[in-house]
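Model the whole thing, not chain by chain.
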Amino acid sequence: MDLAALLGVQVLYAIASLALISLGLAIIFGMMKVINLAHGEFLMLGGYAAIEANRFGLNIWIAILVVAPIVVGAIGVVVERTIIRWLYGRIIDTMLATWGLSLFLVGLTTAIFGNTTVGLSAPLGSFEIGRYRMSAYTLFVIAVAVAALAGVLAALRYTRAGLIARGTMQNGAMAAALGVNPGRVYAVTFGVGAAITGLAGAVLAPVSGVFPSIGGAYVAKSFITVIGGGAAIVTGTTSASILFGAINQLATYATTPVFGEVALLGAAVVLIRVLPQGITGRFFRRSL
Amino acid sequence: MSFSRRQFLTSTAAASAASLIGFQGASAAEPIPIASLLDLSGGLDIYGKPMIDTMTLAVEEINAAGGLLGRPLKLISYDTQSSMQLYTQFAQQAALKDKVAVAHGGITSASREVVRPVFDRFKTLYFYNVQYEGGVCDRGQFETGVTPAQTVEKLVPHAMKKWGKKVYVVAADYNYGQITSQWVKKYVTENGGAVDAIEYFPLDVTNFSSTIAKIQAAKPDFVWSALVGGAHISFYRQWAAAGMNKSIPMASTTFAVGNEQIVLSPNECNGMLVCYNYFESVKNPENTAFLERFHKRFGADYPNVTELAMGTYQGVKLWAEGVKKAGSIDRMKVIEALETGISIKAPSGTVTIDPPTHHCVLDVHIAEVKDKKLLLVEDFPQQKPSDTAAVCNLIKNPNDNQQYVIKI
């Protein structure tokens, strides 16, 4: 009974971390159709931002929840204005450019921070589920993921800015004709996507440590989740995370972490074969 | 004046012959090249960086004393960037292009097994200075690191007496972790205990949550860790985050080798037991003098000289003694000189080469992690490499060339 509860929390945690790392990419790739191969590096930068801010004496919660998203969001806006702006519609070129950007970011971080793993101690201590103990930080990660998904959904559906963003992504020329500055909308949306990614990287930093090339471990899973999720941003990310996260964690528990990853990839292959448009290409079609 | 072709050729030949004479004279002080193949970047740089520092110090000390055979040493340092591919590439480069007198390097056992055949093929002397799983039997190579018979055999009964008889093993998923966990199982069973389970993790795994749950379900008396590398540090973090470090203690044959006790907070790793050849807290005059010289060279705030760093320093000094005894840097002559059982007084104690195995007789200590430091708990002087000696005798079989793996 305790074991079932423990496993349940771990599955929720796997789903939550998958959703967090994919949400920013869902905005950038799902909404803007920009293939951002530097996504893993945004996560890494978020982790470093939180760790460095904490090292300078800032409270750990502010470092994770405030500093990291702002820093990476700003970097995202700069990247959009300097690199991505010129390449809308040119998918292969964007891939090449963001790939180069990811190499640049890895090299820059290595030059500044060195190649050693740095980390944070997970705050919040532990709690008990019957006979078992678990880190209370996992509950925090789950809470942040839920809040991020809810926040993005609310922003897109209920705010004017969200409406403008959705409209501009659908038809930029029409939005421009109605008095919206598409360039600014693109920049801000990319920045928001990067900020959420930075938040995800910072939240996961106490769990796995951060080093310059940690992006590579995350980027594949994020893309798989976003593509598996389909066109809808929040619903797609959520449904794909639930599916893949649960499969991954249950397979990891049954065997080893390696087979957990294999199971996730296997599930992704099957999903794309069965539902080529992703989950929201067939279910929840009109949702956000 | 017109130069005929014949005159031109004669004068050019004379000039080059004259310059060659000068060149021959200069080669008397030609440096002896030695190579290091270490991971100075990537996930394994926590091991490699202290090793290159002590190697640099060793080379500088030898050169300050006049070099070897009247020639200075030239250290060619290769950064293998935690990549096996680069190990092979740089090993070939060191052997063929630089034609080094000796190569010191390899950190993981996987990297050692990758460069060993390369150095054998190109007849380059090779020193592997890292603690490992034992069993390498190769006349062209010397191992100066501790092996399970020297460390695991001492740490297992000590931990079992302190904590209990049920053990859960977590190990890195490559030859070192796989073989060492078998040694742990052997010694645990011999001492009347039982291993609950052995779990293997590839070097880039950072998600240990389900393993921690399984360990809690198994309720062992202590956990044995043979985890390796930067990514596996997150196991200790997640273990402490789940509060487990207060209820189930841990022993390890790899912890602190990468200065993990400094990277983690004291709360996360206090109380862990480790067993190695060298600790900064070993008390003898050589160690005091060494630390003074080391801190003068690299700064008083240098974190901690690790076991691997001292292994490298000792390896270079042993090789230097071999060269002095042989009177030459020729590979076979140095090997034969080292096989007479050369011994040095090193900061870790006396280090003697064991001729039949090409391993070393070393002092060994058990230490406990406390507040980012390692405090000695028990000492075992002059331990022989009995695990390798049981299967390897290079005096009887000089052409033996393999790694013997323990079978349980």
